[in-house]
Structure formats: structure tokens, C-alpha cells
């Protein structure tokens, strides 16, 4: 007599056997054709385009933040304190954008390199578009950016 345990074992073993045979007999090009016809396009991004993509993403993020702050400013239910905080944040966002652009222009002028800069508190991230990846260039960029500040800034340089 077959008990439940033996029946389950035979059922699972049979299933595994059938799937194994199916996998072995399956044509090789079946999987390749599925991946080639997928709807996901492959996009090659050049270094210059990478910086533009980073800039676009940052701009979209900032625009969303500005819109949210403007909603708070125009909302009649917002308190005066909330409106003041929103206004101060709005000024800060605009000032940060101006400073980032100024630093990007400085790198363009001093080193003739395209760059993308983000500032978050005392951290500055610099993405530079160049094939010349060396420590001397990174140190020079860090020094030229630090010259613009009285306080110590934490500056990182990434080459693309």
C-alpha cells in the first residue's frame, strides 16, 4: 500500500522529471528571441549626455520642490510661520542653484571641462566630463571650489 508521503514523493519526482526533459529539449534560440524582441529599448548615453541627464533630473526635483513651496505660500490655511519657512526655503533653493551654476562656470573657465555640481549643506558633489582621470586634477578642482567658501566644505569629484 502507498502512503501519502510516498505519493507526494512520486508526484514531485514526476513533475521534476517532466520539467527537466522539457528544458533539455527546448530550442536554444527560444530565449534569445524573447530578449531581442522585448519592448525595453537599449540606450547608450555619452558622457556629455550623462551630465545633461543629471542636470535634468536635478532641475525636475527642484521644480517639484519649488511648486510645493509655492503651494504652501499661496494656501490660505497655512500659518504665517509655515509661509515664512516656505519662503526661506524657496530663497535657499534659488541661491543653491545660482551657486551651483557659478561653480560649474568656474570649472568651465579654469579647466575647460563640463561639470555638474550639487550642493547639500556642507557637501558638494562634482561630476566632471573628462577622460583624464587623475588625482592632481581632482585636487585642483577641490581647491578652486573651496576658495569660494570660508568654512570647510566636503567636496567630492567624480569623473565620467
CATH class of the largest domain: Mainly Alpha
Largest sheet: 3 strands, mixed
In CATH, the topology of the largest domain is named Helix Hairpins
Strand content: 5-15%
The average pLDDT score comes to 84
Low-pLDDT residue intervals, each spanning 5 or more residues:
none
- Can you give the helix content as a percent range? 55-70%
CATH superfamily of the largest domain: Stage III sporulation protein AH-like
N-end to C-end Cα span: 71 Å
Structural commentary:
There is one protein chain. This protein is an alpha+beta fold and 160 residues long. The protein folds into 2 domains: 4-35; 47-159, Stage III sporulation protein AH-like (Helix Hairpins), CATH 1.10.287.4300. It has 5 helices and 3 strands. The protein has helices at residues 4-25, 29-36, 47-74, 80-111, 135-146, and strands spanning 114-120, 123-129, 154-159. The protein has a 3-stranded mixed beta sheet with strand order 1-2-3, with helices on both faces. β1 (114-120) and β2 form a beta hairpin. α3 packs antiparallel against α4 (80-111). The longest helix is centred in the middle third of the chain and has 32 residues, at 80-111. The radius of gyration is 28 Å and the shape is elongated. The mean pLDDT is 84.
Amino acid at each position: 500500500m502507498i502512503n501519502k508521503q510516498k505519493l507526494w514523493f512520486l508526484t514531485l519526482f514526476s513533475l521534476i522529471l517532466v520539467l527537466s526533459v522539457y528544458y533539455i529539449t527546448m530550442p536554444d534560440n527560444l530565449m534569445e528571441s524573447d530578449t531581442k524582441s522585448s519592448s525595453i529599448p537599449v540606450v547608450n548615453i555619452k558622457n556629455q549626455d550623462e551630465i545633461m541627464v543629471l542636470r535634468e533630473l536635478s532641475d525636475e526635483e527642484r521644480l517639484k520642490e519649488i511648486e510645493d513651496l509655492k503651494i504652501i505660500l499661496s494656501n490660505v490655511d497655512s500659518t504665517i510661520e509655515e509661509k515664512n519657512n516656505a519662503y526661506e526655503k524657496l530663497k535657499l533653493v534659488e541661491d543653491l542653484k545660482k551657486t551651483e551654476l557659478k561653480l560649474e562656470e568656474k570649472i568651465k573657465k579654469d579647466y575647460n571641462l563640463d561639470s555638474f555640481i550639487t550642493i547639500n549643506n556642507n557637501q558638494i558633489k562634482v561630476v566632471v566630463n573628462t577622460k583624464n582621470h587623475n588625482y592632481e586634477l581632482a585636487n585642483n578642482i577641490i581647491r578652486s571650489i573651496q576658495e569660494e567658501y570660508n568654512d570647510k566644505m566636503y567636496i567630492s569629484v567624480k569623473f565620467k
